[in-house]
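Internal tracking record. Fields below are filled automatically when a chain is submitted to the structure queue. Please do not edit lines marked as system-generated. If the sequence contains nonstandard residues, flag them in the REMARKS field before resubmitting.
Queue: standard
Priority: normal
Entity type: single polypeptide chain
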Amino acid sequence: MASKQQSERLDAHAMQREKERERRRLRDRIRRQNMTQEQRDRHLARRRRNYQLRRLRAQNAKMLSSQQTDTNIKCNASELELIDHHSSSSLPLLNELPTTSETQGGAQSVRKNPRRLRVSDVRHLARRLHSNVQHQNGGLLTSWQSLPNQYQINYDQPVIGNNIMGLDYNRQFTGASSSSSSNSSELNYRNSIMQHPGLYSTAAAERLLNNFIELRCYNRSVILLKDFLTDPYVVMMDKGRSSEFLHFLEGCPTGVIAGILDKIAKYPEECLVCASCHPVASSVIKKLIHVARKLPCVSLFPKTIAPSVVSLLSDQFGRHVVEECFILLDKFKNEILYEQVVEHWLDIATTKYGCISLQVCINHMDPSPSPHIRQGVYVPSLKECLLKLISYNAAFLALDEHGNYVLQHVIMMNHPLCNEIIATELRPIYEILSNSKSGSHLVEKCCGSPFRSYVAEELLKSKNLLSIVQNKFGNYVIQRLLKETKVKKIYTLLVKHDTFLYEKLYKKLLQDLDTFENTPYGKNVANLIKDQLMEDNYKANGDRIQKWQQKDRQRGI
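SYSTEM-GENERATED OUTPUT FOLLOWS
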């Protein structure tokens, strides 16, 4: 009865497949009839190419199968025998492993369908074994039986007393002396029973595993410290060991850190400078500065890198080491660095990475004046000296592709004296700067400062005001100037002057509105002026309505 139903089901599926094939044939026939000659030629060429590829694949599959059948059968059979032997000897509690008949059946199926043993097959078997062990042992993998003898822990054995800075570097995982005679699964753990791992709770097994991992990491860290004290720069520049050393430094005691810095101090200064420019070693030096920031020996880094501060701040990786000193160390330790930066500030400001580092330096410099008095004269701080030097050389920095970023940063600090000096120094070149990409950003920053009137006066005098309005970058300068000089609620002397300049600029642009109204970039300024016109008309009409209402009240209407 069952065989009859199965045969009927197969006949029904065969009929459905035949109907589907017929439907597709009709669909393809109609599609080919509606094709143009060019489409038909391309379709036939594609079909011929697909047929050729199928024939080549079939030939290659036959050749490969004939050459690799014997080797694959031998390889798969040996792997199955090895897995079956390992599972029967090391994990006797697993009941779900395949039996001998199943493995023989698997070998026969391999002979029928020969293929290579893939990594995914091994992973699948490993997951299966892992899940079986978890099921037998109550959730956590505690198969200490499978550990080799060299990883068996003997907690009763005394620790050898050779120390390096408080760390026992000779402490290792030692095998029990009686492990050769007893079963390898027995662990000499104090006050615990290790003969039957499946009887342990999850918490106990987790504690055992954590102790094993901690001791192994401890042993690895001590070996790493020995290598570092032998040659620190070899470990720093090694990508693998440097990442381990970074983790080691996180919980390292201060005595060990002081010893590491003493070892680095014995090498020439050029070694530290070269390592600071290395992509891997620079991260280790940054971490050393971070963990030793409260120790007096950390002054080694500013003193060593101060003579080469220009080359380091101009380097992609070296600048991060110097910036770490700026951020984490106090002004007394960084004073030697600040002096070198003030002396060579122009070389630093005109480089790609130096302009960024100089901004970080300015942010972290101490603004308080120097406590020393020379002949009764006020001695400014290093930060004030640096800001004045940048302000008086504003014209040179504004035309430099990197220096203008430093100048923008100084303007955003809203230092009144520096902003006035910068606005005065840039007066002759406002027109040139407005037509360039980086320069237009700088002029916009000047428009946002209290000395925006300098920009407005120079642009009103210029004969090329319309070209600035229609420029790709200059139109943003005009928009910002119109917005900043507009009437404000706080009527101070400065705001009144800005209002006068706004009206003057507004009227001058309104006269030539038809000239730049339909240009790609001038239309942005034209829209701003139109909005102002609508606002003025609304105010004028509102004033007229108010006058009419007052007259009506007087008449008593």
